[in-house]
Amino acid sequence: MGDKLTREEVLHVARLARINLTEEEIEKYQFQLKKLLDDVDKIKEVKLDSNDKLIAPVDEKTVCREDEAGEMLEPEEIMKNVPVSNGNFVEVPVMINE
Amino acid sequence: MADYKKTIGIEIHTELKTKTKIFSNSINGYGKTANSNVNVIDLGYPGTLPTLNMEVIRLALKAALLLNCEINKEMHFDRKNYFYPDNPKNYQITQFETPIGVNGYVEIEVNGEKKKIRIHDIHIEEDTCKSIHYKNHSFLDFNRAGVPLVEIVTEADMHSAEEAMAYVEKLRELFLYADISDCKIEEGSMRCDVNISVSKTAELGTRAEIKNIGSISNVGRAIEKEAARQINLLESGREVEFATYRYDEKNDQTIIMRVKEAGNDYRYFPEPDIPYVVIDDELIEEVRSTIPMLASVRREKYIEAGISLLNANKIIQNRTLSNYLNKFLDSGIDLVIASNILLGDISAYLNRTDLELDDTKLTDAKFIDVVNKLSSGDLNSKVFKEILDDVMEKEQSLDEIISSKGIKIISDPTALKKIIEEVLAENTTSVNDYKNGNTRAIKYLMGQIMKQTKGSASPELVNKLLEEELSK
Predict the structure, then answer these.
(1) What is the C-alpha separation between B290 and B62, in angstroms, rounded?
(2) A93, B110, B187, B406 - which has most CB atoms within 10 Å?
(3) Shortest CA distance to B151 belongs to which of B204, B115, B101?
(4) Which residues have C-beta within 8 Å of that of residue B442, sequence separation ≥ 6?
(5) What ipTM is given for this predicted complex?
(6) What ranges make up the beta strands (E) of B16-136?
(7) Closest Cα in chain A, distance from residue B369 (Å)
(8) How does pLDDT run across A22-68, given as a tens digit for each residue?
């Protein structure tokens, strides 16, 4: 295992996060990410009596709402937070390669 | 080529018929102005939290029960993480570990043979926004973002295009009838992804996934095309690549979209913003009681009543008509006649006037009266056509409508026989033609008789009496 991740592992995570890394950063994250994973491994060593999984910070069960409509935003409001809009649409660089 | 076996699994996404979205109270509607059914939750604004729509749980539970699934009585949601503009939160809320239903099945019938298709699971998730691509831009409409979906995943139990189509058709029929979804494939409220591989041995081949097939017949076509493509590859010594394709209808071919990412790149983890959802027996029974008579049961009952398979299917395709007909299943009326006028004159009237049955003045009593009178010959189809508008639009009873129109129906065989004898006596040439084997002559004679009765006799009865008379 060693004390660092491989270069490929770091690049794979970077690709999933859609970020570019410099050579310096790649090297730095090889160590940092490994440290993070090791810390998580330590948590895994805790012995538990039950298999109950805590999925939320509260013990209560979900309370559902009934199927009733509420307020919505006007398209003009939405576009205020949109870098590039086109009419009522949000415009982004092309997502597929035809 | 023939010794390759196809193995097919299907994933179907179906939008649930709710008023509002799954985690926000903005409207779930199709065909509205872009980005008009949207609120801060659908856009993933920082600080917003999802609130689960109870109707989504009810409808998904209904679907899971219809698919004969075991229900996960304590379930939660999971985050599926990916960066893509169709989902600004950068994760989709779905169910990964605890789908609402598991280990179910659907029964299909192909060429008279029944077969169970196992359901691996049915899980709930949110839809992403809709994107339209043009040149080097994509345009996003978040009206669809957060629309509730169920995804139904089969085991790889199908082995032909026919089985796959029968499965999709069956699922569509189930969900339509139980009012779970509109199931409009062309509007995207039902979307099919097909996984297919071919192999000569018991070991499965590498599969390809064909995404978002736009119609049930295209499911069949895409499977045939993709299987042929894979067999060609294997026969020429090459390998099938594990990849995602789409079906191009115009050119009838499958086109590669992307080589698949591994599942664990999605880094699923439990959604911490939505605590456990509990489904108790009371809710299960409540939801079970809302399941209406299914299409397959209706079909059996209609065929038992003597309705042809073709007409039975036509009625089942129109749930309003089918529900209407069901009211009379035990009334003792002639259901064949009832189905004929529902599919014929009454459907034509509804189409012409753009009305629903509920909007008309056709009461149950009037409908029974019409069917019984058509059955006894006290009303004939020609007169029914004439008075149809009044039957549908006036408060009057059938008898009142008939007498107010001055229509007299001759259903007395003795009176009819007299007219028939007169007509035959006046048309000896045609009678002789008929007796000499020119069977078409009977049509002319029928016409003459109907003319004499001014169309007030039942054609069926006249035909019967005329044939009796001529065979003397």
Answers:
(1) 8
(2) B110
(3) B101
(4) B434, B466, B467, B470
(5) 0.88
(6) 70-71, 74-75, 78-81, 91-94, 101-110, 113-126, 130-134
(7) 42
(8) 999 999 999 999 999 999 999 989 888 777 778 887 888 999 999 99
What structural domains and CATH numbers belong to chain B? 5-283 (no CATH), 295-404 (no CATH), 413-470 (1.10.10.410)
Mutant choice from B276, B277, B279 vs A, greatest count of A C-beta within 10 A:
B276
DSSP string spanning A40-85? HHHHHT---S------SSS-SPP-PBPS-------HHHHHTT-SSE
Burial of B188 (0-12, 13-18, 19+ CB in 10 A): middle
- First and final C-alpha spacing in chain B: 65
Amino acid identity at B183: C
Which residues have CB under 8 Å from A96's CB, separation 6+?
B133, B138, B257
Q: How do residues B72-82 score in pLDDT, each as one tens digit?
A: 999 999 999 98
CB spacing of B34 vs A86 below 8 angstroms: no
Average pLDDT over residues B372-399: 89
Q: Which residues of A sit within 8 Å Cβ distance of B?
A: 16-18, 53, 55-62, 64-75, 78, 81, 86-96, 98
Tokens of B468: 């009796």
What does the pLDDT look like over A57-95, one tens digit per residue? 788 899 999 999 999 999 999 999 999 999 999 999 887
Domain spans of chain A, in order of start: 7-44
CATH of region A7-44: 1.10.20
User: Would the CB atoms of B25 and A64 count as touching at under 8 Å?
Assistant: no
Q: Which of B20, B38, B275 sits opposite A78 (nearest CB)?
A: B38
pTM of the model: 0.80
